[in-house]
Amino acid sequence: xxxxxxRVLVLGEDTRAFLTVVRSLGxxxxxVHVGWCSRxxxxxxxxxxxxxxxxxxxxxxxxxxxxxxxxxxxxxxxDLVVPCSDDTILPLxxxxxxxxxxxxxxxxxxxxxxxxxxxxxxxxxxxRLEIPLPAQVIxxxxxxxxxxxxxxGYPLVLKxxxxxxxxxxxxxxxxxxxxxxxxxxxQAPAMLAEEEILVQQNxxxxxxxxxxxxxxxxxxAAFQHERVHxxxxxxxxxxxxxxxxHPGMLEATRRMMQELRYxxxxxxxxxxxxxxGGWVLIEINAxxxxxxxxxxxxxxxxxxxxxxxxxxxxxxxxxxxxxxxxCRNLTADLQWMLANLRADxxxxxxxxxxxxxxxxxxxxxxxLRERSDTFSWDDWRPAWADLSAxxxxxxxxxxxxxxxxxxxxxxxAAEAVGGxxxxxxxxxxxxxxxxxxxxxxxxxxxDFAVSSFGCFPQAxxxxxxxxxxxxxxxxxxxxxxxxRVITQADVDGADVILIFDRDNRDHxxxxxxxxxxxxxxxxxxEVEGPLEIADPHGLPLQEFVKCYERIRxxxxxxxxxxxxxxxxxxxxxxxxxAH
Length: 579
Prior knowledge:
Elements: E1 7-11, H1 17-27, E2 31-35, E3 51-53, H2 64-76, E4 80-83, H3 86-94, H4 110-117, H5 119-128, E5 136-139, H6 142-152, E6 156-160, E7 176-178, H7 181-194, E8 197-201, E9 206-215, E10 218-229, E11 239-242, H8 247-260, E12 264-272, E13 279-285, H9 292-297, H10 302-312, E14 326-328, H11 330-342, H12 355-360, H13 362-366, E15 370-372, H14 381-399, H15 403-418, E16 422-427, H16 433-444, E17 449-454, H17 465-473, H18 488-493, E18 496-499, H19 502-511, E19 519-521, H20 541-559, H21 563-569
Parallel strand pairs: 1-2, 1-4, 2-3, 14-15, 16-17, 16-18, 18-19
Antiparallel strand pairs: 5-8, 6-7, 6-8, 9-10, 9-12, 10-11, 11-14, 12-13
């Protein structure tokens, strides 16, 4: 490798792995650049971010992002590029042959990545190495899932074959636990509509992670954590502690890394039953993991070790770390505490924690054994930004039910509509809500420029059959519609952007500038009813019809012949809809 610049590029945006990597490398004296972050990421407020690079979002149907990424690599000559999340890793893995310096990017050989990213391939690897696993079948039909339920019993775990989609890496596919036949019938069809799924027997126990740094399959550093608070039906933890390495799980991890000749960081996730001592492998995370702040707080600085191994050729790293060190993600743990408080403790399928034990955990803070994922005395701004975003979301959930808040939202939306001639509708995929809304307004106001867009990073997708039929029943033909992905130019050209839910707003805020006063909820124009208009995608036809009827009623009032009277009722008679 050429002379080191001591400059790195970190890709991601969350307040766990991404922020921890930024801080670790910054504290090591490296010049830390970041990219593929939302404009609203709390991690961007870290003092260790030297420079933020605005990169085009990944799109499956466009190479603009790839050209911009390669230009940045050539211009900055980074020692190392560290993608921290599935949505930043997957595009680079898929296009590694087109990258100008893949050797400086923390990527895996294609076959190794496929084995780790595909849960069924990981299962086969572990099975070949005789590593304990939960019983599992691959299901392609609902009858297959029902047969697995009859075999394994309830609760039953339904898993996508991979966590990320190649079409939209930013959307994480979720694992679902179904408690009984009713849950199965409600959850399984939507998952099967996308691809085959894995159906696993539920295994009771604690979530445990064995985290490693490897070179050519040799484990150079290892750490283990145990979940203390995890979502009541399972998933990533909000509170966790460091524990001694379990010999059996460490050996299983070593064997898998050796078999793969793995180079980089990884976490092998297990389920451990303290009562029996039994354990099974759940999956391999071929990247930095969400509990990384705990590892660093306990003395295992994996991001710095990765840089020293990859760029400086070092292979000797500390083997000891602090045991019983705790780490909490404050905003996620506040959410967990609310759920744990409200949970039905008679439901044995829920992983609740007794309230006295939760209260006793305060002693960890008093004994200085607890750290925060986000707060640090030398870098406190990310914690404040993260907490502010959490409180804003909670305040919105409360306010949207209050009359005065709806009144303010309605007046602002009415003012924006009243002065608009170029109206854009934005929803998630531009295949359900926004195309119907745009087609209805275009028919009501042929003198307007009306358009619709989506946040999903792929164009030219067709509306689902239920959307076509629901629109047809209401006199709108969507058969010729193809999805479009919103761009900065579309934002700049619109007088008003009408959205349907908070996720639409968050995406726009994260990706684009120039939104001030433009973005409003279509539902705000209605005196009653929910502020947000939920996405009917994947739901039965009648849900599409209900959604479209509500959209049509709002638009006929504000864009049809009643438009002027609606504006007058909102106190805007001096600003009528432009003709």
